[in-house]
Amino acid sequence: MTAAPEVLFAQAVAAHQCGDLDGAEALYRAVLRADPNSAAAPANLAAISLARGQPGPALDWLNRSLTARPGQPAVLANRAQALTALGREAEALADWEALLALEPGHTDVLNIIGDIRHRLGDNEGALQAFSEASRLEPHNSLIAGNRAAVLHALGRDHEALEAADLALELDPASAKTWTDRGSFLMGLERDEEAAVSMARAVVLAPDNAEYRYNLAGCLGKLRRIGEAAAAFDAAIALKPDYASALWNKSLLLLAAGRWAEGWPLFEWRWTTRGLANAPSISGAPVWLDGSPLEGTTILVHYEQGLGDTLLMLRYLPLLSAFGARVVLAVQPALAPLCEGLADQVLKLGEAFPPHDFKLFMMSLPLALGGGAPPPSVPYLAAPAEARGRWANKLGPRTGRRIGLVWSGNPGQANDRNRSLALDRLVPWLQADADFVSLQVNYRDSDVETLRAHPEIADFSADLTDFGETAALIETLDLIITIDTATAHLCGALGKPVWVLAPYALDFRWGLEGSTTPWYPTTRVFRAPAPGQWDGVIGEISALLVSEAT
Fold first, then answer.
1. How far apart are CA 405 and CA 480, in angstroms?
2. DSSP 477
């Protein structure tokens, strides 16, 4: 005679509590055979599946339990956890929100909802959840810290800092909040204070590689190179495959001119969070081992921005000198400039010819010895036909011709510290010169300034690719530009160019001085702090006047 379902269930619970998962599972299944509409048995079978690390079967059992009896808070919570384990966070969020509707004011659930919304990119929704949780439980340091993090994600760093300070009043030993606070201070350009905060996190949690990595990045921004390198090394010692630390250390070393140390570490760029994995462009081997190139074909493929491509094109003749046939896959806007540098130039989407080796463009320095940049400027020239056209378009020369570039892509990470409004450059126009805009696109605020200053010639409609831009540049005597692809184009053409370099670690412009090893005809004007251009603008104004006399 079969025992009653309630008896079987009691036996199953007893076995479950004793840790006999196999026995408990068999008894719960017996309950379901006796009572197919049971909600409790599948809920407990789900708990067993979760304990075994099997979220898929657990989800099936939880769905059955909620079909039998909807609105069970504990079952909703377990289903949300199973969905999260399966990577189905949007569905998990719906369950947590349903649970919150059943149990309003549940701060733990609000905190989870905020965390999921944050991960899904809904930072406004995350802030709403964390703010409500904080209102209900104002002395909860975890909630205060989470609210601070999402305020930072929204770009509200002043408020984030206030929230972090509150969290630290509640829990001064929270290493995570100290390192987060440092990030907020960096967002406010208060880097010295940020370094102190991040160093506190390292003291509290010395075995945390991420906190040491954060400190290293802050110290690097402060140009404290030795300390930054040591902090990167400490992070890497704790986590030897820490790709972001290894790659960012390479940027630090390269900015300091330590080429032989920096270029090998630069290869870690493919496994960082900031770059996609290296695209599998072909089945050919990567040429990094110095294999003989005589009689071979090597495919060199662009990988990052236009400026990086322009920087690296100098290396292509060295491959040809080894006897290789060089096939270059390049951004379409640069193709007209590259015809003389490679045996074949491909635009995006064109099929690759047969080749023996491949190489991504930013790996060229390492593949060719890992040393300092070769002194090969100029290595680009504008198409001859375009040069003649632009000479005719500008007409007879009446004085110095100066090209201007003052803003770049607003989506670039550091654009707020490199781009300028055109009206800030108006003092330069007092110099005895003809000014030419090399901008292709204008921001709304610059259009009115451009109308008010017709002495700046605007040829934006005619600058259809970099071949045209190069031809216009070659008619000029001097170019003054912020850190954009145009700066690299001028350097590669060997034209006199003044570059307004933002206050940031950048191996292209180095750490100090007015020169860069990449471009001998470039003069570097450095912002003394992030976004502080007044002194540089004044210095250039004085030079424009003095060099005209």
1. 6
2. S
> 384-546, superfamily in CATH?
Glycogen Phosphorylase B; (3.40.50.2000)
Which part of the chain has CATH 1.25.40.10? 5-215
Residue owning tokens 């079978």? 45
- What is the per-residue pLDDT across 5-56, written as a single tens digit (0 to 9) for each? 888 889 888 989 999 999 988 988 988 998 999 999 999 999 999 999 999 9
The C-alpha R_g of the chain, in whole angstroms, comes to: 31
The Cα–Cα gap between 385 and 100 comes to 70
CA distance 63 to 61: 5
406 close to 439: Cβ distance less than 8 angstroms: yes
Quick one: pLDDT at residue 116?
Answer: 96
What share of the chain has pLDDT > 90, as a percent? 80
Token pair recorded at residue 426 = 């108006």
- Pull the structure tokens for residue 473: 């540049």
What are 443-502's pLDDT values in tens digits? 988 999 999 999 999 999 999 989 999 999 999 999 999 999 999 999 999 999 999 999
What is this structure's pTM? 0.84
Q: State yes or no: pLDDT of 523 exceeds 50.
A: yes
Rounded Cα–Cα distance for residues 461 and 23 (Å): 78
Yes or no: is domain 5-215 CATH 3.90.1530.30?
Answer: no
Fold classified for 297-367: Rossmann fold (3.40.50)
DSSP code string of 397-456: --S-EEEEE----TTSTTHHHH---GGGGGGGGGSSSEEEE--SS--HHHHHHHHH-TTE
What is residue 191's three-state secondary structure?
Answer: helix
Q: Could you tell me the CA-to-CA distances from 373 to 299, 319, 509, 519 in Å, in that order?
A: 21, 15, 12, 9
Domain with CATH 3.40.50.2000 in the chain: 384-546
Q: Is 165 exposed, middle or buried (0-12, 13-18, 19+ CB in 10 A)?
A: middle
- When the pLDDT of each residue in the chain is averaged and rounded to a whole number, the result is 92
By three-state DSSP, how is residue 281 classified? coil
Cα angle 407, 413, 418 (rounded to 5 degrees) comes to: 35
